[in-house]
Amino acid sequence: MTNRMTKLDRLLSLVHALVDRSEGMTLDEMAAHIGVNRRTAERMRDIIMIHFDLEPIVEGRIKRWRIAGKLGRMFTRPTAEELAALQAEVTGCRAAGQDARADILASLLNKVKSALDAPTRARTAPDFEALAQIQRIFIPAGPCIPVRPETLATAQEAIMAGMVLEFDYQAEGKTEAEWRRVIPYGLVHGALSYLVGQKPNSDMPPAFYRLDRMRNAKVGDKPGIIPPDFQLDAWLARSFGIWREEEYDIVLRVMPHAVMRAKEWRFHPFQQVEPDDDQLVIRFRSGGLRELAEHLFTWGGDIMIEAPDVLRDMMIERLEIVGKAMSAKVGHR
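The chain above was modelled as a monomer; its predicted structure follows.
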């Protein structure tokens, strides 16, 4: 892409952002969105102001801008690439056994395609079909357990209504389901889908509940308001994986031959990466030590555990378990 085309692409991207964000954008947010400095963002804002109704929003000392109203169809018409990306998500969800989510995304895709006029559909269809055939979401080995669509819909309804969610839940290792009532804080999707919820009037922290283990879910008749200071992303970052436990200060040292790979890897959303001669030191704070130890096992000794000691002990324990299993296999032969 030429320099001139890059500038045009950034300008159009900023126009879309100023329409999509109803709360508006500051100059710093504009600059970050299109990857330029504040002065360049200011010049682009002035150009947009000439052609669009750019509305200022003042909140104390903070000033934001947004484009009032909606853009014309020529600006909002989806491309074949965008439609194919959505189709890939639908296909990926189905391959992972997440039909409930796939149905929602497929419905969205059909609505977007139906909204296109006939000439646009005819022009877009060949490229969409070609791109949809050659794009897939990689699904690694792991659980493939479907969630009932009505369970997902009921959980979402409870969250939007600000009410508790009630359901029968069969926890791992239990032979019978037990009734639960929780305040639904959010939903987390991956290989499995989870509800983050907390029991009302309880000092116990929020916990994960697998949607596939829920039965007879219904919206309760009592309020279930999410605390205003609860942030789902921050809560998730307190653990390396799904298991919730005490947090530790994690310090990992990457060996020289694995530094380039580690620089391209995200261990934790709030990690700090520091070069140390020809090695790399990675720091973050989280729980989930067992899951972290099992992940570090895949690095084959390229990463050393400097802290905490309990993580090092956990790694030794996991290695001993694997070693005993392999020895038993050899002895069996």
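The mean pLDDT is 89.
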